């Protein structure tokens, strides 16, 4: 059967993007750009806002989040790591769009951070999208916080998770153990700053994380565990994730290589 124009457009993306990993000039340009925009150099990620709120993200990753949210159509997005709160506002705005399009009934964002600074909390509380956001203050891997999140999630049908807080291997692995099982089939767990594994040493020399101890190594460990063990999700089904490499590869520049995890 002949493909529709949209089907052909999507096939063209797949065909084109499949060549990107082997395109050495493209990959070299991406790596050099990343090396120059990093913290302590251009500080590129500190240049942007979303609906007026600072958002510390590479813009390409925000575009990926938009595609993920539209595809998965979650009614709850759980985010570990708040900082200024721009990503909370981004998620809330996408859920508002899903509501306006009658794709979901009522969406909400649940944010967690070990410290929510008063000025950030005030700015978020005064934002027009504040009614779509709930925040919990405490460590995302503390048992009481995990219990609160799981209780909160019971009222929702489709769940997506974004992990972007403490970037040590141990912390991110504990977050994956706690929150990945909440992700609905066909939805995503996005793990931020996996690029630390590939970053120049001078970008992470003053941090408690670095090569061999970061979100990417935690993702690798978690996926290996799922492959080797019979791990069941909260709804009783087998818990399996795969990396959405097409989504990652078409970005060319991303802070989350190997971090776009699609629940099968």
Automatic annotation (TrEMBL):
The keyword Cytoplasm does not apply. Pfam families: RMNT_CmcI (PF04989). GO terms for biological process: DIM/DIP cell wall layer assembly; lipid biosynthetic process; methylation. GO terms for cellular component: plasma membrane. GO terms for molecular function: methyltransferase activity. Keywords: Methyltransferase, Transferase. The keyword Transferase applies. Its EC number is 2.1.1.-. InterPro entries: RNMT_CmcI, SAM-dependent_MTases_sf. Gene3D superfamilies: Vaccinia Virus protein VP39 (3.40.50.150). This is Rhamnosyl O-methyltransferase.
């Amino acid at each position: 059967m002949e493909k529709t124009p949209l089907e052909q457009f999507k096939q063209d993306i797949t065909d084109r993007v499949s060549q990107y990993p082997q395109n050495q000039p493209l990959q070299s340009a991406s790596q050099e750009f990343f090396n120059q925009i990093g913290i302590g150099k251009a500080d590129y990620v500190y240049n942007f806002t979303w609906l007026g709120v600072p958002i510390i993200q590479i813009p390409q990753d925000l575009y990926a989040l938009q595609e993920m949210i539209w595809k998965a159509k979650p009614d709850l997005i759980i985010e570990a790591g708040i900082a200024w709160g721009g990503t909370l506002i981004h998620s809330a705005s996408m859920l508002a769009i899903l509501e306006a399009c009658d794709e979901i009934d009522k969406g909400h964002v649940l944010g967690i951070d070990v410290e929510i600074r008063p000025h950030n909390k005030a700015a978020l509380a005064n934002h027009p999208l504040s009614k779509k956001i709930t925040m919990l203050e405490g460590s995302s891997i503390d048992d009481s916080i995990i219990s609160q999140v799981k209780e909160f999630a019971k009222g929702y049908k489709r769940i997506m998770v974004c992990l972007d807080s403490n970037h040590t291997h141990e912390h991110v692995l504990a977050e994956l153990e706690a929150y990945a099982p909440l992700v609905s089939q066909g939805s995503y767990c996005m793990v931020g700053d996996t690029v630390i594994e590939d970053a120049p040493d001078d970008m992470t020399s003053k941090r408690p994380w670095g090569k061999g101890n970061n979100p990417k190594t935690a993702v690798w460990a978690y996926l290996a565990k799922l492959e080797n063990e019979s791990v069941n999700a909260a709804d009783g089904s087998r818990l399996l994730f795969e990396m959405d490499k097409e989504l990652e590869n078409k970005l060319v520049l991303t802070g989350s290589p190997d971090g776009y995890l699609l629940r099968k």
